[in-house]
């Protein structure tokens, strides 16, 4: 009796362990799957080619992104930006000098750097912002409590907070139904279009950029991004902070 | 013991009604904020923390005053604080509750506050801040209530409370340290990125907390006709003097590092703070008031004769509070955000709703202090009458 | 009893307060099972009706973590032998396209107010 009970517990324990590791073996067939089309990478990175960028292309990128993600246009300083234009000097103030006459006021595109060592993830008290294995730094809008610690933590000003209900500034007829809006009181930012990447598509800004923005796996020696970074000179924003940003600027 | 809170003079009740009115107005403003979001504040994409978080920072400091009496009394057997200690502990309770409320009103999604407990994240300083603030609140309620009850029964405090009292000493240090670490560990915010953040928090805390306690003790003397004891107030005045000197010294150290190294990322924040940049000079006016008030208070308090004159001491304590409140409650947060990561310069001036909500929370704090002190002083009077 | 004049009214107020939900609903309509408008072109949902009725909220809750945090995109339905995107708007509301005649009827009857549609856009 004693022996068989012990045996039963042992088997039940093993079964529970096995089921938790691989539920499909236990007969629970319905369940989550990864999409077959999904693009995979060890480390996603973005390379922005300043030579190929111009005002028109930048505007296209911004429009593609903000339309896809239902980013509202709010006409004051409580606004939301995922990808936007910023003068060269503001982005690279520690790597420029007074005689950079042409470049200094030249607008550049900027967005979340999807750092390898992201301070926003470190400071978030609820893990509402987190790093994926492939390096994309994501926001879980369901979990964010709106403390804005991540905004203080981000050294690049890449994060926006929903001071307003964003739907007030969105046209109901022009909403993109495949992506949610946000609610009041949560933080948001660029997601490297993780939802598109997972379905096998490139990020919206990359598609709209006419080749000025490259996106690929930095750990793959044959990827476009690796090759171009080996060939040409590039800048990173605030590299001395050790956040290890993954948006590179070809100069 | 709580029954002592419901028997009071007309003045006591009028004061409570005034506080309730302030709380009511603040609550109304908070309902507006819940409805319209933090868009009712002057916070924005660049300056994402403001008046609320600044009050948290300032009040965490004030909550320390209890420990500045616990250390002399329990570690150095300085008996002068025996009568007054309960007031310090109850003030800590009120200020910590204010701190927690300031965190809640700053949240965009306050109803999800519990997520901090559901998904505990040890890498986040805010998680630890929640732990230490709630722990300190619990310790002070427990210690204050148990010791007061023992005194009322005219017996010594139970032995099991001693470990909690000793624990409350490092715990008081921890609430400032952790709150300073909220700021001091952020890359790219050069104004905050300094090891002197926690020490300077402690110094300003040990000046502001006891200064407020002295002022409230004077108020008690007038309105409750109960004297906390001259020696206790004089000891507190000495503590304020030393802490104020340390606080001003540490500010001087920070300014030296920025000004002599001339590293622009460091210096720009101090220039903004004291002189203003690109025409944004509102904050610098306040900062000069803060500095002049702090230095004047020190010059007054350095002389024992001034400390011994109640009026001059009270005046100096007001100066200390003005100085530390402007420094923590206005300057520290805004100057950390400006210039922004994009090198832009802005001014942050809180809006009406923001100020009303802040006043409402101060109203709650003063209500709690009033009621708890009424109980504490009532018990002491009862003991001393026999 | 000492202080009966305070204790008894106190007890009465307490009892009234605790039974508030009962007398507040006096005279309100009796609960009737809401009638849902089901999609015409489909016979089966991705799981059995009983399961969906009892568990749809838990399923959506799991889906959102799996999709947002864990990198899964699809749900394999054993019942339908087919994969579906784990998405409220793309899968659920693709069939149940009228929120008012499906979601809201039960939610209103049971007085629950899910905040899904604060962000997710109804078709």
Short description:
The complex is a heterotrimer of chains A (251), B (386) and C (123). With 251 residues, chain A is α+β, with helices and mostly antiparallel strands. Chain A has helices spanning 2-21, 55-68, 88-91, 101-104, 119-123, 149-153, 194-197, 204-208, 224-231, and strands at residues 31-33, 44-49, 83-87, 107-111, 129-131, 137-139, 160-161, 187-188, 213-217, 234-235, 247-250.
User: Which class do the helix and strand fractions of chain A yield?
Assistant: alpha+beta
Order of helices and strands of chain A: HEEHEHHEHEEHEEHHEHEE
The number of strands of chain A is 11
- The CATH class label of the domain at 54-200 in chain A is Alpha Beta
Mean pLDDT of chain A: 88
Task: Give Rg of chain C in angstroms.
Answer: 22 Å
Helix/strand structural class of chain C: mainly alpha
Global Rg of chain A: 22 Å
Q: Widest sheet of chain A: strand order?
A: 9-2-11-10
Largest interface: A-B, 48 and 45 residues
Query: Strand portion of chain C, in percent?
Result: 5-15%
Q: What is the 3D form of chain A? A: globular
**Fraction of residues in β-strands of chain A:** 15-25%
This entry's quaternary arrangement is: heterotrimer
Termini separation of chain C comes to 66 Å
Q: Based on the structure given, which CATH architecture of the domain at 54-200 in chain A is correct?
A: 2-Layer Sandwich
Structure description:
Chain A: InterPro entries: 4Fe4S_Fe-S-bd, 4Fe4S_Fe_S_CS, DsrO-like, ET_IronSulfur_Cluster-Binding, TAT_signal. Chain A: Keywords: 4Fe-4S, Iron, Iron-sulfur, Metal-binding, Signal. The complex is a heterotrimer of chains A (251), B (386) and C (123). By secondary structure, chain A is α+β, with helices and mostly antiparallel strands. Chain A has helices at residues 2-21, 55-68, 88-91, 101-104, 119-123, 149-153, 194-197, 204-208, 224-231, and strands at 31-33, 44-49, 83-87, 107-111, 129-131, 137-139, 160-161, 187-188, 213-217, 234-235, 247-250. In chain A, β5 and β6 form a beta hairpin. The radius of gyration of chain A is 22 Å and the shape is globular. The relative contact order of chain A is 0.21. Chain B is mostly helical. Chain B contains 14 helices and no strands. In chain B, α4 (85-106) runs antiparallel to α6 (125-152) and α8 packs antiparallel against α9 (230-261). The two termini of chain B are 17 Å apart. Chain C has a domain at 49-116. The N and C termini of chain C lie far apart (66 Å). Classes of the chains: A alpha+beta (251), B mainly alpha (386), C mainly alpha (123). The interface between A and B is large, with 48 and 45 residues. β1 (31-33) of chain A pairs antiparallel with β1 (74-77) of chain C.
């Amino acid at each position: 009796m004693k022996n068989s009970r012990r045996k039963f517990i042992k088997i039940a324990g093993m079964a529970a362990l096995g089921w938790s590791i691989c539920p499909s073996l236990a007969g629970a067939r319905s369940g989550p799957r990864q999409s077959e089309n999904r693009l995979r990478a060890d480390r996603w990175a973005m390379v922005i080619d300043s030579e190929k960028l111009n005002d028109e292309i930048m505007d296209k990128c911004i429009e593609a992104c903000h339309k896809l993600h239902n980013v509202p246009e709010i006409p004051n300083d409580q606004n939301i930006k995922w990808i936007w234009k910023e003068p060269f000097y503001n982005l690279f103030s520690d790597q420029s000098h007074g005689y950079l006459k042409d470049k200094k006021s030249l607008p550049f595109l900027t967005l979340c750097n999807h750092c390898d060592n992201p301070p926003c993830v470190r400071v978030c008290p609820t893990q509402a912002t987190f790093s994926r294995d492939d390096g994309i730094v994501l926001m879980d809008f369901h979990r964010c409590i709106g403390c804005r610690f991540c905004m203080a933590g981000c050294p690049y000003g890449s994060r926006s907070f929903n001071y307003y209900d964003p739907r007030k500034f969105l046209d109901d007829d022009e909403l993109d139904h495949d992506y949610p809006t946000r609610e009041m009181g949560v933080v948001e930012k660029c997601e490297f279009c993780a939802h598109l990447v997972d379905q096998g598509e490139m990020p919206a800004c990359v598609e709209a950029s006419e080749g000025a923005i490259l996106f690929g796996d930095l750990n793959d020696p044959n990827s476009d991004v690796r090759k171009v970074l080996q060939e040409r000179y590039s800048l990173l924003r605030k590299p001395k902070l050790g956040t290890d940003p993954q948006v590179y600027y070809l100069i | 013991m709580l029954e002592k809170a419901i028997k009071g003079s007309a003045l006591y009740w009028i004061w409570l009604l005034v506080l309730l009115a302030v709380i009511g107005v603040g609550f109304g403003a908070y309902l507006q904020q819940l409805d319209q979001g933090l868009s009712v504040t002057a916070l924005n994409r660049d300056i994402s923390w403001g008046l609320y978080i600044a009050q948290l920072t300032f009040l965490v400091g004030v909550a320390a005053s209890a420990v500045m009496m616990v250390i002399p009394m329990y570690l150095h057997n300085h008996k002068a604080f025996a009568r007054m200690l309960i007031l310090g502990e109850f003030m800590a309770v009120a200020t910590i509750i204010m701190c927690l409320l300031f965190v809640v009103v700053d949240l965009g999604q306050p109803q999800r506050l519990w997520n901090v407990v559901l998904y505990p994240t040890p890498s986040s300083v805010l998680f630890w801040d929640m732990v230490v603030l709630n722990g300190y609140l619990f310790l002070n309620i427990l210690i204050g209530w148990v010791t007061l009850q023992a005194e009322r029964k005219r017996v010594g405090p139970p032995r099991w409370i001693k470990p909690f009292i000793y624990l409350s000493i490092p715990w008081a240090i921890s609430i400032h340290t952790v709150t300073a670490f909220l700021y001091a560990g952020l890359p790219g915010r050069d104004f905050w990125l300094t090891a002197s953040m926690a020490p300077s928090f402690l110094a300003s805390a040990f000046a502001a907390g006891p200064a407020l306690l002295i002022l409230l003790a004077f108020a008690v003397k007038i309105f409750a006709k109960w004297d906390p004891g001259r020696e206790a107030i004089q000891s507190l005045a000495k503590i304020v003097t030393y802490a104020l000197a340390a606080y001003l010294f540490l500010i001087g150290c920070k300014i030296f590092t920025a000004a002599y190294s001339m590293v622009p990322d460091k210096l720009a924040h101090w220039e903004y703070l004291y002189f203003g940049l690109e025409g944004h000079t509102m904050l610098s006016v306040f900062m000069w008031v803060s500095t002049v008030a702090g230095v004047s208070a020190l010059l007054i308090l350095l002389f024992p004769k001034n400390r011994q004159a109640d009026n001059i001491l009270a005046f100096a304590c007001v100066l200390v509070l003005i100085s530390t409140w402007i420094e923590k409650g206005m300057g520290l947060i805004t100057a950390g955000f400006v210039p922004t990561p994009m090198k832009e310069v802005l001014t942050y001036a809180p809006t009406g709703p923001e100020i009303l909500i802040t006043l409402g929370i101060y109203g709650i704090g003063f209500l709690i202090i009033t009621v708890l002190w009424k109980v504490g002083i009532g018990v002491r009077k009862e003991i001393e009458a026999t | 009893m000492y202080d009966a004049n305070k204790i008894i009214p106190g007890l009465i107020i307490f009892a009234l307060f605790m039974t508030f939900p009962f007398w507040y609903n006096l005279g309100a309509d009796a609960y009737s099972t809401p009638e849902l408008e089901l999609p015409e072109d489909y016979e089966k949902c991705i799981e059995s009706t009983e399961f969906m009725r009892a568990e749809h909220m838990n399923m959506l809750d799991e889906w959102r973590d799996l999709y947002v945090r864990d990198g899964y995109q699809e749900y394999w339905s054993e019942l339908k032998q087919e994969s579906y995107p784990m998405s409220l708007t793309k899968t659920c509301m693709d069939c149940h396209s009228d929120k008012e005649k499906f979601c809201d009827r039960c939610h209103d009857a049971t007085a629950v107010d899910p905040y899904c549609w604060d962000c997710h856009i109804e078709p």
